[in-house]
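Slide 14.
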Amino acid sequence: MDEVDLSQIEKELLTAGRAASKALIKAQEIVHEGMPLLELVEKVEAEIKACGCEPSFPLNVSINHIAAHDTVSLLDPPQTIPKFAVVKIDAGAHHNGYISDTAITVSFNREAEKIVEASRKALENAISNLKVNMTVSQLSAHIESTIRSYSVNPIYDLTGHTIERYNLHAGVSIPNVSNRLGFKLSPGVVFAIEPFTTTGSGEIAEDTTGKIFRGIKRVRSPIRFDERVMDYALRERKGLPFSDRWLSNIGQAQEVVSSIRRLVRFGALYEYKVLLERSKGLVAQFEHTIFMSHDGPIVTTLRE
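Slide 15: predicted structure.
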């Protein structure tokens, strides 16, 4: 990619990055024990839209041993932030398909202090050591060594990832543990670094269902309403993840949820299962999106 192309991409990525960053600042300001999850999710997603962007995925609010992919679903009973919670808030925005992905942990639990600091510092150290054409294996080594220095565990099977236009997880993983991946972080590469730390064993288990979905392909269905859901997933979202909450304007809650479940079974939609720390250890996460320019890394989601 030439420098002109990269400068145009950088501008779009920074627009998306600022929106997600402002949304997380908003989240950090308002989140509190006893807060309704729906209120938190709606206010933070609204902040992204107020910045002229759209969410690149539903706001994730993953609490305690829930590691990732949790949000508020249409049929969920009312939920609030529990006392002594460790709350991971993962937000993303996109502008013309150019994506940002960033996360913080807000902890009301003193037992989580070490994992919170380990995740935060692992992200900081990884970014400070980034260089053009560094390999993923070199980057992962910095992440793991920082986490281990706090005598806590990384989560082995949750990783950072490359990002492309309208593609949140673009195929290359960035593990939080040492590996032999030789992929180079060359100019033009966009990627998220997200160290997950835990008081537990560091292994992930999937819950039985998910609350976040993305369109994969159009299939034939005998139910006309399914066409509307597929149109939303493939035409409006262009394959980016979505929540059933975002479809409440096209049908009743049960109708929307039933259609989504049916389309998952048909292979039209992908379901992101809620991810749990297998030993029920507390989990912390911090994340930034980085654009590698010719002059070095640019963190698109910096928070002032």
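Speaker note: The first helix runs from residue 3 to 30.
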